[in-house]
């Protein structure tokens, strides 16, 4: 009976029917529960059916029979597939004999643990010592490791000499180029990978166009990422959405694409971002992406929560990120930004100060943010104090320029000059070098000289002539041929020490040496000339004699006398306020309002004067108020919404319109 069962197991195994083989193996184990071969076959059948947890349970239950030497690979593989990567590594390392299968799995485990240097060495050893049909797969894995190093560790990849004959190798090569910032080259590699992918898959008649597009999704996703990095956000967004419509089964790919769309949206289109963020929460995403990818997704979730005014959620996510990476800048910056949105600027500055004290290595970036917050609050002087506390940036030209500008805005010229002085001193200390105990002269760097010049110009601008003279003398000493600096120095001395200015003026070059030999005609007729001198007309007859005798006389245009008003009286002094509008003149008292005269007999037949409404008994206090006529005094209560004069209609316009309408109706037919 046992022999027949074994035959059944062998036949089912060859046919790939592992479910039926498992039934036969279970019958064998009922006969002998400790049969090592049967237990191994059971584990293999369970692995082939995808029941990794059950297979690992069988291994752990029969540890006395299934020792690590017997079933090390199967155990490590089950742990690897169950995402117990650390346990898989221990199982592989504890095996007494490192088989080729274990070495292959060891490389996969190291890749998942992001130990790329060890992984690279493992695959190189495998390729060197193996000769079978899986060589192409090993080279693909090796190129994937190099791409990961370039992307996540910014390591310049070495040329492995791999022939890019497959689309997988082309794709990995493109990823390595993206890590180096070579985006145009990477795009060409991806286009080649797409072409190779279509060729290889179209050869199989069973593969449909949908299958090809699904396989190309990851290549298209990387193309869209390059477009995004190049600033072509509209093209990238369109390609990302096309991939999402295909509904690929790779949850890692969907999560990355959704995250990239969220980064494009930023604080706009938050409704779409909230829909896309659900794709990043799919089951199994954490096992498909690297740590840095997962961290970037969490950062964007926190920012999205801030943009959607979910303050508690934002604080929760940023606090979690800070606990995972205490030295990282982004979590504390997100927390500070959220506090600023809640108008708690002082608390935000305090939070940043605490982080700077705890992590001095990142203090510079944090203090720059603190200074920005102080400027936003209007505390420019405090912002300057924070910036000056960043020792590694004090001497940088950008920092010096920012501080001088801010101090000038606050009219604190002494502090601005002090900033210049400290920066110049820093360069002086770092420019000198010691050689055998003696200080050897070294020319000042361009940055140092530029700072001295800017300091001198600043002092001259603010009337600090004596202080500027020392800087200008230093500049002239460095370059005695600099005429511009010498001229500035003479100008400064002329206000302080005229005699010294005269002495220095002797160093100015003579006028002959400074004269420029310029062909005026050639310059005027050049392509870039904006003004061309008109050529003189030919002179003949009397004009020629006039030109030779007394020169050309320019005709003087007669000035026309200005027109005077009709009622102008030269004996009366003109009104000095005549140029002002009437309403703005000192003697204006407003328009006199006269009583309106009754216009009896005017208008259409049977019409009465406007005063007749006062004699109408129906318009008593008990009658309901009628709506005010346009332009009447009843509209005073709406004075706050008065239309500006240029848009206001004349008060009589509606009434005139009404009269015109009545005149039109005069000849119309109608019944009583």
From TrEMBL:
Domain Signal recognition particle SRP72 subunit RNA-binding: 534-590
Record's compositionally biased regions (Low complexity): 601-640
Subcellular location: Cytoplasm; Endoplasmic reticulum
Repeat positions for TPR: 217-250
Start-end of Basic residues biased regions: 554-564, 656-672
Species lineage: Eukaryota, Metazoa, Chordata, Craniata, Vertebrata
Keyword Ion transport tagged: no
Species this protein is from: Hippolais icterina (icterine warbler)
Protein name: Signal recognition particle subunit SRP72
Keywords tagged on the record: Coiled coil, Cytoplasm, Endoplasmic reticulum, Repeat, Ribonucleoprotein, Signal recognition particle, TPR repeat
Gene Ontology molecular functions: 7S RNA binding; ribosome binding
Coiled-coil intervals: 85-140
């Amino acid at each position: 009976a046992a022999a027949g069962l074994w035959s059944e197991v062998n036949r089912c195994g060859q046919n790939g029917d592992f479910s039926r083989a498992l039934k036969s193996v279970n019958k064998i184990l009922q006969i002998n529960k400790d049969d090592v071969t049967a237990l191994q076959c059971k584990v293999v059948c369970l692995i082939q059916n995808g029941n990794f947890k059950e297979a690992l349970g069988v291994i752990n239950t029969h540890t006395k029979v299934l020792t690590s030497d017997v079933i090390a690979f199967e155990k490590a593989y089950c742990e690897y597939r169950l995402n117990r990567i650390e346990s898989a590594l221990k199982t592989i390392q504890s095996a007494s004999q490192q088989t080729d299968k274990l070495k292959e799995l060891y490389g996969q485990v190291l890749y998942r643990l992001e130990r790329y240097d060890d992984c690279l060495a493992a695959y190189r050893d495998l390729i060197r010592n193996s000769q079978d049909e899986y060589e192409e797969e090993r080279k693909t894995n090796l190129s994937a490791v190099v791409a990961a190093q370039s992307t996540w560790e910014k390591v310049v990849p070495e040329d492995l000499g791999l022939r890019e004959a497959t689309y997988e190798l082309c794709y990995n090569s493109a990823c390595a180029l993206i890590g180096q910032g070579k985006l145009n080259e990477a795009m060409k590699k991806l286009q080649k990978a797409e072409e190779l992918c279509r060729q290889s898959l179209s050869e199989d008649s069973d593969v449909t166009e949908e299958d090809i597009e699904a396989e190309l999704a990851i290549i298209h996703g990387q193309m869209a990422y390059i477009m995004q990095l190049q600033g072509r956000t509209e093209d990238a967004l369109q390609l990302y959405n096309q991939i999402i419509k295909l509904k690929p089964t790779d949850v890692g790919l969907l999560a990355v694409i959704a995250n990239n769309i969220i980064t494009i949206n930023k604080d706009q289109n938050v409704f779409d971002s909230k829909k896309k963020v659900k794709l990043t929460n799919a089951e199994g995403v954490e096992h498909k992406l690297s740590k840095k990818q997962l961290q970037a997704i969490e950062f964007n979730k926190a920012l999205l929560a801030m943009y959607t005014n979910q303050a508690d959620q934002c604080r929760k996510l940023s606090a979690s990120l800070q606990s995972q990476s205490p030295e990282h800048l982004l979590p504390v910056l997100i927390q500070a930004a959220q506090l600023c949105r809640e108008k708690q600027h002082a608390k935000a500055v305090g939070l940043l100060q605490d982080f700077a004290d705890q992590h001095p290595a990142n203090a510079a970036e944090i203090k720059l943010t603190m200074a920005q917050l102080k400027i936003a609050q209007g505390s420019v002087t405090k912002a300057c104090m924070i910036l000056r506390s960043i020792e590694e940036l004090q001497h940088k030209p950008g920092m010096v320029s920012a501080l001088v500008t801010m101090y000038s805005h606050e009219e604190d010229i002494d502090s601005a000059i002090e900033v210049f002085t400290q920066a110049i001193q820093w360069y002086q200390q770092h420019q000198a070098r010691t050689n055998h105990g003696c200080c050897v002269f070294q020319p000042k760097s361009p940055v140092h000289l530029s700072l001295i010049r800017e300091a001198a110009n600043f002092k001259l601008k603010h009337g600090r002539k004596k202080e500027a003279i020392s800087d200008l003398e230093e500049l002239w000493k460095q370059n005695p041929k600099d005429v511009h600096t010498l001229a500035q120095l003479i100008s400064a001395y002329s206000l302080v020490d005229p005699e010294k200015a005269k002495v220095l003026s002797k160093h100015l070059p003579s006028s002959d040496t400074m004269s420029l030999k310029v062909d005026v005609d050639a310059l005027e007729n050049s392509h870039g000339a904006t003004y061309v001198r008109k050529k003189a007309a030919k002179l003949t007859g009397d004009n020629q004699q006039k030109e030779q005798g007394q020169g050309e006389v320019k005709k003087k245009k007669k000035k026309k006398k200005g027109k005077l008003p009709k009622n102008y009286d030269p004996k009366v002094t003109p009104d000095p306020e005549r140029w002002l509008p009437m309403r703005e003149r000192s003697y204006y008292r407003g328009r006199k309002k006269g009583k309106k005269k009754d216009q009896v007999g005017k208008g259409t037949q049977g019409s009465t004067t406007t005063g007749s409404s006062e004699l109408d008994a129906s318009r008593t206090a008990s009658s309901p108020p009628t709506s005010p006529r346009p332009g009447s005094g009843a509209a005073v209560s709406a004075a706050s919404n008065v239309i500006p004069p240029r848009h206001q209609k004349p008060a009589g316009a509606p009434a005139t319109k009404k009269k015109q309408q009545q005149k039109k109706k005069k000849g119309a037919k109608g019944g009583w």
